[in-house]
Amino acid sequence: MKDKKKFWLVISGSAVGFINGFFGGGGGMVVLPVLTMLFGYEQKNAHATAIAIILPVSIVSIIAYLIGDNQSLIKTDTLFVSLGVIAGGILGAFLLKKISNVWLSKIFAVVMMIAGVKLAFF
Question: How much is the pTM?
Answer without folding.
Answer: 0.68
